[in-house]
Fold this sequence. Notes:
Blueprint: E1 22-28, H1 29-37, H2 52-55, H3 64-75, E2 83-86, E3 93-96, H4 98-108, H5 125-128, H6 138-146, E4 148-154, H7 160-171, H8 179-186, H9 190-199, H10 202-207, H11 218-231, H12 241-252, H13 257-278, E5 284-286, E6 292-296, H14 298-309, H15 313-320, H16 323-336, H17 338-343, H18 351-369
Parallel strand pairs: 2-4
Antiparallel strand pairs: 1-4, 2-3, 5-6
Helix pairs in contact: 7-8, 9-11, 11-12, 11-14, 13-14, 14-18
Amino acid sequence: MIRRALDKRNSNLHYNPDDVNIRLQHFRVAELVDMINKQHIESYSWIDIWSEDDIQRNSGLWNNVQKSLFIESLMIKLPIPLFYFDGAQKPWRVIDGLQRLHTIISFLNPDSKKSFKLKLLEYMSDECDNKYFEDLPGYLKARIMEAELEAYVLNPGTPPEVKYNIFKRINTGGLSLKGQEIRNAFCRGIPADFTKKIASQEAFKRVTNSKVLSRRMDDREYVTRFIAFQLFDYNEYNGKMDEFLTDALLELYERDKNELHELEDAFNISCSRIFELLGEKALYRVNRDGSYGRTPNKALFDTLSWNLLNLSHHEFDKIRLKSNLYKDEYVKFMISNEIMYKSIADSTASKKAVVNRFEQMNIFLKNFIQ
């Protein structure tokens, strides 16, 4: 697997503001629908509309009443929040406004099974409640299709950091989204699909004792951590975990199928090695009294997975043949080594903590083998 150096970032602002190129553009609903049908926006059709995972976490999806009120806003000409599109690539990607687009497309769908009936409208309930788009009076259909929408469109040359920053700021306003949920929605396609696939592997479920759940995408954050430290040298980590993990997912767009297969195989090997040596409590922090923490530890996972994967087959076999002794020595090490203990307990995302735990674990393994 080829590791690439991260861009050197010497200031708090990681891009030149002069490179930001954004325009304000007006659209009619009919124009946006046409762009989606022609796949000029995303790559989705009437039949294959966005999956729930790619929109947002399940609890954040609009219900039927929210969808209906949005459609009502179009009918009565109320202002609609701005959309954000990444126009630097073709097709355009939606940075913000996916649920609104999803609502428009699904409501206009001539297939009633794909559409929805309006319900509990505030102003037009007498005329429109319990009606599909096809059932509405002609003047209201026209009003929806002619409704004007505004969007900020990011032009070519706008840095990726700006796109992600816009997406993150917008999506941490109303809904309380976690970092991986934001990354998953921003990095749709190959990165989102790949991390979802890897997180479903049996080796991962086994080593995490099935305690890392998928509901808030915690499982995919574990996977993303593994990917990030495989693609980039941990010594180049800058102390900003969110940025580091986002860079890793964006990097997946540039990797070919063979490299993705290598990553998948490496992930399974590392999970299997961890479990083989330490069992179902492998990723639980060892407390001072020898007891274990209540849940798996992400920081422990990233250093164990990286260090055990970097062992040769011969080195791993030497440890495996003395697995009982290894477990005893490992517990002693995790309790007595103050640097290691703090690196998985306090400020685990700091640069110092990351470097310390990777290096201390490496020293421990090499000493045990010798």
